[in-house]
Design brief:
Oligomer: single chain
Number of helices: 4
Strand content: 25-35%
CATH topology of the largest domain: Structural Genomics Hypothetical 15.5 Kd Protein In mrcA-pckA Intergenic Region, Chain A
Radius of gyration: 25 Å
Structural class: alpha+beta
Number of strands: 9
Number of domains: 2
CATH architecture of the largest domain: Roll
Helix content: 10-25%
C-alpha cells in the first residue's frame, strides 16, 4: 500500500483504531473498510438486556433480576399502595393509590397509568410525587404535595 502523504497514513491509522474499539451495546455489522466483524465473545448474562418493568396500579407483584456480582435488583411490577411522607407533620403513612395524574417522564406513560420516579399520583391522603425508582428499588415511596381537604381540616 502506497501512501502519497503522511496525512493519509495518519487518517488510515485513526480509522483502524476506531474499528478496534467495540461497544457491546453498539455492535457493528461491518468495518469501515467494508469487511465483516467477527465478535471475539458472546454477551455475558449480566450484559443481556431485558424488557422494561412498567409499574402499574394493581395487586403487589415483584420481579427479581440477577445483576453483575450476584446481586439482585427487585423490580416492582404492580402495587396499589405507596409510603407517603408528610413534610408538615414529619410522619410517614402507607396509603392507597387511586390514580396516576401526571408522569413527566413520558406522555404515553401518563395515558397507560405507569408509575415512574417523578410521577404525580392521586392517593387517599392527597397528591403525591414518587421519589423512589420502582423498576429498580421494588418499592414505592413518595412525598405529599397537596393534602386533601378532609385531612387539612383535622
Amino acid at each position: 500500500m502506497i501512501f502519497h502523504s503522511k496525512e493519509n497514513y495518519l487518517r488510515l491509522n485513526i480509522a483502524l483504531l476506531r474499528m478496534v474499539v467495540k461497544s457491546l451495546e453498539n455492535l457493528r455489522k461491518r468495518k469501515l473498510t467494508g469487511g465483516r466483524v467477527k465478535f471475539s465473545r458472546n454477551r455475558r448474562s449480566d450484559e443481556l438486556d431485558t424488557f422494561s418493568c412498567d409499574t402499574q396500579i394493581g395487586n403487589h407483584s415483584i420481579r427479581k433480576k440477577r445483576t453483575r456480582g450476584g446481586l439482585l435488583k427487585i423490580a416492582l411490577v404492580s402495587d396499589n399502595s405507596i409510603n407517603v411522607y408528610d413534610s408538615v407533620s414529619k410522619t410517614s403513612k402507607k396509603t392507597k393509590i387511586i390514580n396516576v395524574l401526571k408522569n413527566p417522564a413520558n406522555r404515553d406513560y401518563e395515558r397507560r397509568r405507569i408509575i415512574t420516579k417523578g410521577a404525580l399520583l392521586d392517593t387517599e391522603l392527597g397528591q403525591v410525587r414518587v421519589l423512589s425508582r420502582p423498576g429498580q428499588d421494588g418499592i414505592l415511596n413518595g412525598i405529599l404535595i397537596t393534602p386533601t381537604k378532609s385531612i387539612q381540616q383535622t
